[in-house]
Amino acid sequence: MKVTVDRDLCIGAGNCVAIAPAVFQLDADNKAVVAEDQDAPDDLLWDAAESCPTKAIILEDDETGEVVYP
After folding, report:
1. Starting at the edge strand that comes first in sequence, how are the strands of the sheet with 67-69 ordered?
2. DSSP 30
3. 25 phi and psi, to 5 degrees?
4. DSSP reduced 3-state for 61
5. 49/19 Cα distance (integer angstroms)
6. Nearest by Cα to 49 from 34, 62, 63, 36
7. 36 — pLDDT class (breaks 50, 70, 90)
8. What is the pLDDT of residue 37?
9. Angstrom distance (rounded) from CA 16 to CA 22
10. Dist CA 36 CA 33 (whole Å)
11. Residue 39 has what pLDDT?
12. How far is CA 37 from CA 8, 22, 32, in A?
């Protein structure tokens, strides 16, 4: 699964970092960024995405490129 963060929507709540610190970090602007070498289980990515209060985490199917969340 491919994961990205819509920085225009991100408010830096940090839920994603708390759930998946190996995948997400907060940058100098207090916005979430995705680690380059992340390899997390899909269920962990789903949990992080669903925890985002602004739905800023976007999940895409690796094979089709289709957005599966939000």
Report:
1. 2-5, 57-60, 67-69
2. S
3. -140, 155
4. coil
5. 10
6. 34
7. confident
8. 77
9. 10
10. 9
11. 80
12. 23, 9, 15
**What mean pLDDT, rounded, does the chain reach?**
95
Domain boundaries, the chain: 2-69
CATH assignment, 2-69: 3.30.70.20
Measured between alpha carbons, how far is 62 from 68 in angstroms, rounded to an integer? 10
Give the pLDDT score at 26: 97
The dihedral sign for the CA sequence 37, 39, 45, 48: negative
Both tokens assigned to 20: 């998946």
Q: How many residues does the chain have?
A: 70
Has residue 38 got a pLDDT over 80?
no
